[in-house]
Amino acid sequence: MIGIAAAWIIVLLLGGGVALDRVLVNAVTRNFDNQLEYALTAMIASAEIDPTGEVFFNRPLGDQRFLEPNSGLYWQISGTGHDDFTSRSLWDRTLEQVTPHDDLETHLYDSDQFPGEGLRMVERTVILPDSEVKWTFQVAQSRESLDAQVSEIRSILINSFLLLALGLIGMAALQTLYGLWPLRKIRKAISEMRNGQKKRVSEPMPNEVTPMVDELNELLDHNEKQAEEARRHAGNLAHALKTPLTVIMNSATAKAEDLADTVIRESGVMRRQVDHHLARARAVGRRGHAHSRSRVWPSLQAVERAVGRLYKHVRIDIDGDKDAAVSVERQDLDEMIGNLVENAAKYGGGSVFVTVEPGDEFVELLIEDDGMGIPAEERQRIFDRGARLDTGKPGTGLGLAIVRDVAEIYQGTVSLEESEDLGGLMVRLCLPKSQVTS
């Protein structure tokens, strides 16, 4: 930032300095030229023709430098067929017309006809009364004073603009360092958090960095929640595995005759618990993906094909919005829909109907079957891990628990209702609508 500011300051000051230099130099040169033109006008006003046809002045010119040899200020009057009429200051030299012309306009230009002495010249061609000769009036002055003024102006400009540039760059540097100073505080606070001295950035910050600090604190909250969930999941898994392990250990210690059956049974329980907690862990790990987006219809079609192969006697119909998308990872969406549709096919009477209804913020999936349904008083308990109402069919009792946990991780909900069309159970799965366009 300091480098960019310094570059812009230098560029702007260079541009401004060049422009100002041209303005001041032109002003000084114009003032110098005006003095020459004034002397030329005075010459023309004083010039007359004598009886012999030669030009002369009816009154002397006011500037005494015309009388001092090599004074740096000269005049000369030239006419075809006549001797040059020159000022005493020219001494034994004459002025030449560097740019020949034949008009009555005033001409201003620089000349180097005198070695070591640059001249600024003004000349004009005039026809005097009582004469048909075109007389060329010339006034020349050494550029030494003009160049000295220009050099002084440029020296002042360069020194002033250098000081101005240093001052502006210094101010830009101070402003940048002052503006970015709060970031040093944030860095220090993060270092203190890493060392365990602080948990949050609590110092007051300027308005410009307050949103970043708030986002950082929210990120820390999010990470703490995820860490707490991970610890809770680990504790729950450990607790869930403790009982089966105890049963196996007791049977092995007692050398029970049904040890093999006990190991197989309790191992199945442990596997189901591990699958359940792994599903939750995967969903929690993917929850932070703000751009998660999955289309519902392809997931429904994939689940329909898979469940249809397992339960060939079941008819599965899907209807609704084919373009609906939710802010859920595809794998988690497939797992939720798969559990619900498989339950409907397993416990229903042979018909499963799935409807996709998009809303403003959520997409609802209605999974209906024509089975016996679930009594209202049992609909909350059925979400508990391992809870089963129909023990005559194979299952783990974790399907609805997994669906509920994964849906809640994505800020969704799942509820059980009665199907008005099929007469069995209707599961209402609400998932957040994706705001990301494909």
UniProtKB/TrEMBL annotation:
Catalysed reactions listed for this entry: ATP + protein L-histidine = ADP + protein N-phospho-L-histidine
Domain of life, per lineage: Bacteria
Localization per record: Membrane
Residue ranges occupied by any Histidine kinase domain in the UniProt entry: 236-435
Keyword Kinase: yes
GO molecular function, one term: kinase activity
EC number: 2.7.13.3
Keyword line: Kinase, Membrane, Phosphoprotein, Transferase, Transmembrane, Transmembrane helix, Two-component regulatory system
PANTHER family: SENSOR HISTIDINE KINASE TRCS (PTHR45436:SF5), SENSOR HISTIDINE KINASE YKOH (PTHR45436)
Protein name in UniProt: histidine kinase
UniProt organism field: Parasphingorhabdus litoris
